[in-house]
């Protein structure tokens, strides 16, 4: 009898445990389905951006707050304020500006120093205080006033490569600040300078055959292990995001606007076919077999660019929406439980290995910029302040 009772008790425990496991599994499955379905809900998107922004604000790096690494992040924080209207994000950008005394880094000819100035210019439009952009104006004017120097956008063996837009990342760093300053001051000289130098870099680094940018001239002849041209994901992300941020401030009737729109459409259309099945873009865009890893910074900039293009009537919604949603899902799955964004490739200029624990400021910025456009695309209400 004892044996029988024992067996019955064991069977009951096993049965109960099995039922509980099945219920737990079904609950988790249902919860996962809810999460999967919910990631395109505007409120969910807004919460996700805030989570990433809050984590990054609490975890600054040792780098100077006005260096380029912080530029995309604070640009994202500014757009988060404009969408959600939460004053704490406006105050966060103000605190950054006050900490660096509204100054760019003291290298006026280096495109990188103007990345943070994009946020200064946005704040100026809200606060209307001249001191916010005085240094930005000085830095850009200093560059314009050296026009007698012959530009040189080569990279190899060029001791002065940092003084010209000789690497494709530069097209995100400086041009949007020029375009925005032109909009604020109503002086076309800033837009004309930007256009001249963008075209110079484009003629040198843009492959019309591939509708993609080489990072710099070192990559003209380099090939991946599979013999493909090396077009770096984040490098091209910098460019398409830069195009979007230039077009935001460029007048509709500007004589060269069609050039920028055409390049924007060409690049984004090319990128559709290069998206991997997992929703990311390979770090080496033409060689996903060699670099199949998840990478969120390039993908973030691509999703931002595409969503902005649809929101502003430059890209077809029906064509791009599935690509954007697939990319946003991939990005959403890159966020740690505490808000840290993972799979962000380290600072560099070419494809490298990356893990879920890798993060950088510009990755968080790309995520928030992308999220703000997807938020609007999904019907989110924009703050009118």
Automatic annotation (TrEMBL):
SUPFAM superfamilies in UniProt: Six-hairpin glycosidases
Keywords: Hydrolase
InterPro entries with a match to the protein in the record: 6-hairpin_glycosidase_sf, 6hp_glycosidase-like_sf, Glyco_hydro_88, PolySaccharide_Degr_Enz
One term of GO molecular function: hydrolase activity
Gene Ontology BP, a term: carbohydrate metabolic process
Upper taxonomic lineage: Bacteria, Pseudomonadati, Bacteroidota, Flavobacteriia, Flavobacteriales
Pfam family, one: Glyco_hydro_88
Protein name in UniProt: Glycoside hydrolase family 88 protein
Domain of life: Bacteria
């Amino acid at each position: 009898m004892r044996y029988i009772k024992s067996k019955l008790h064991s069977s009951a425990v096993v049965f109960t445990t099995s039922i509980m496991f099945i219920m737990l599994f079904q609950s988790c499955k249902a919860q996962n389905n809810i999460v999967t379905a919910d990631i395109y809900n505007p409120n969910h998107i807004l919460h996700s951006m805030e989570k990433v922004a809050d984590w990054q604000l609490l975890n600054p790096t040792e780098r100077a707050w006005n260096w380029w690494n912080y530029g995309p992040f604070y640009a994202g924080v500014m757009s988060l304020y404009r969408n959600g209207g939460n004053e704490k994000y406006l105050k966060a950008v103000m605190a950054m500006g006050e900490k660096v005394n509204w100054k760019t880094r003291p290298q006026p000819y280096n495109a990188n120093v103007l990345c943070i100035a994009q946020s200064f210019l946005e704040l100026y439009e809200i606060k209307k205080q001249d001191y916010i952009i005085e240094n930005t104006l000085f830095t850009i004017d200093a560059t314009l006033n050296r026009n007698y120097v012959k530009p040189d956008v080569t990279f190899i063996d060029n001791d002065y490569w940092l003084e010209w837009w000789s690497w494709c990342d530069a097209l995100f760093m400086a041009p949007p600040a020029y375009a925005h300053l032109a909009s604020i001051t109503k002086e076309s000289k800033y837009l004309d300078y930007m256009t001249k130098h963008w075209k110079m870099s484009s003629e040198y680094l843009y492959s019309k055959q591939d509708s993609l940018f080489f990072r710099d001239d070192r990559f003209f002849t380099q090939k991946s292990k599979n013999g493909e041209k090396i077009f770096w994901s984040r490098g091209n992300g910098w460019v398409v995001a830069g195009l979007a941020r230039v077009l935001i401030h460029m007048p509709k009737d500007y004589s060269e606007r069609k050039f920028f729109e055409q390049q924007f459409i060409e690049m984004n259309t090319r990128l559709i076919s290069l998206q991997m099945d997992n929703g990311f873009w390979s770090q080496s865009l033409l060689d996903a077999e060699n670099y199949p890893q998840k990478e969120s910074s390039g993908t973030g900039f691509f999703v931002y660019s595409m969503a902005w293009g649809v929101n502003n009537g430059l890209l077809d919604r029906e064509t791009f929406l599935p690509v954007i949603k697939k990319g946003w899902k991939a990005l959403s799955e890159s966020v740690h439980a505490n808000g840290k964004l993972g799979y962000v490739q380290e600072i560099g200029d070419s494809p490298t290995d990356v893990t879920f624990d890798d993060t950088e400021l510009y990755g968080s910025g790309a995520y928030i910029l992308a999220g703000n456009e997807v938020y609007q695309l999904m019907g989110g209400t924009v703050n009118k302040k």
